[in-house]
Amino acid sequence: MKPAFAPLLPWMLALGAPWGGGVLPTRADTEQPESVFNADANADANARNISRAFAEPPRPSGRPQVFPALDLPNDAWPGPETPRLLALGATPDPSTHPSSSTLRAEEQRLQARMAAEGTNVVDLFSLADVCHDAGVDGDKQAVLRSEAYLRKLLELEPNHSRGLALLGSVYTMKGRDAFWPTTQIRLVKEGNAYMDQAVTLAPDDIPTRTIRALNNAHMPDFLGRTQVVREDLAWLWGKIEKGAAPISTSAKQQLALHWGRILKRQRKVEEAIQVLKAGRGFAPDSTVAAEITAELEKLR
CB of 191 within 8 A of CB of 171? Predict the structure, then answer.
């Protein structure tokens, strides 16, 4: 799996970086994104969507102040390639997940819609989501655009839990892209703090907790997120078992994969097998199902 902050880990391990709870940064404390109106989109890879797996909330009424569309150059994105694994637990399936050209078209479509209908949190979140997808696979400018969209969203709705959670993931990517190890560590820690704040605001919101769970599930134990991941996955799997999880099949399978692995580490082999088999059953021919099968083989 390829978490957004994977390039950070060698530096952290070399430094013996301690980890604990994060303190939310102020705007002045953080590295500021380039304005989305001036951003030079220079994407160098594809990505797939994670939070688009979640149901879109109802569109707000009224016509807020228009947020001008981002003017993207025609050559700003590469041609379609086979998508690769993304940060928040998304295993790519080229037959079902968008290529970079599709993401480009979607961003432009959303910009045009928002320019016509007015600024709103639904379109801002979707725009941030699309840019997040491109950023996960290495497009640094897309990371900054995603942050800028989320900053505008949070101006309009400061307690938007999914926006805060996605901002936390964006910060892990900013940490990935930072040069200095201390900056890398600080940004990932701040990203975790944003995700924690999001779950505090909406502890019963399944998409919010899924974003945190599938991001933090990849973090090594020394980062201090083991208990957070365990609690999120246990809670989310309970919702899935009850059929009350408005998330994609892929997300459900990812949650099953991670929860099964935790149960295996806890030596709860029978429970792990049940969870993994249930996860595989959601889509037996998917890429994630193949990973689940590999885990099941280890339990024989």
Answer: yes
Examine residue 270 and state whether it is found in any structural domain, yes or no.
Answer: no
Give the CA distances from residue 174 to residues 27, 35, 67, 226, in Å, rounded to whole numbers and listed in that order.
14, 15, 24, 22
Q: How far apart are CA 189 and CA 24, in angstroms?
A: 9
- The boundaries of the domain holding residue 191 are 8-204
Q: How far is Cα 284 from Cα 290, in angstroms, rounded to an integer?
A: 8
Kindly state whether residue 232 falls inside one of the protein's structural domains.
no
Domain total of the chain:
1
**Residue 270: CB partners within 8 Å, gap ≥ 6?**
none
Is residue 215 one of the residues assigned to a domain? no
Residue 145 lies in a domain: yes
Residues 172, 212: Cα–Cα separation, whole Å: 12
Distance separating alpha carbons of residues 182 and 15, to the nearest angstrom = 9
Q: What is the CA radius of gyration of the chain?
A: 19
List per-residue pLDDT tens for the chain, 300 residues long: 334 544 445 445 444 444 334 444 444 344 444 333 333 333 232 233 333 333 333 333 333 333 333 333 333 222 222 222 233 334 444 444 567 778 878 988 999 999 999 999 999 999 999 999 888 777 899 999 999 999 999 999 999 999 999 999 999 899 989 999 899 889 989 999 999 999 999 999 999 999 999 999 988 787 899 999 999 999 999 999 999 888 899 999 999 999 999 999 999 999 999 999 999 999 999 999 999 999 999 987
pTM comes to 0.71
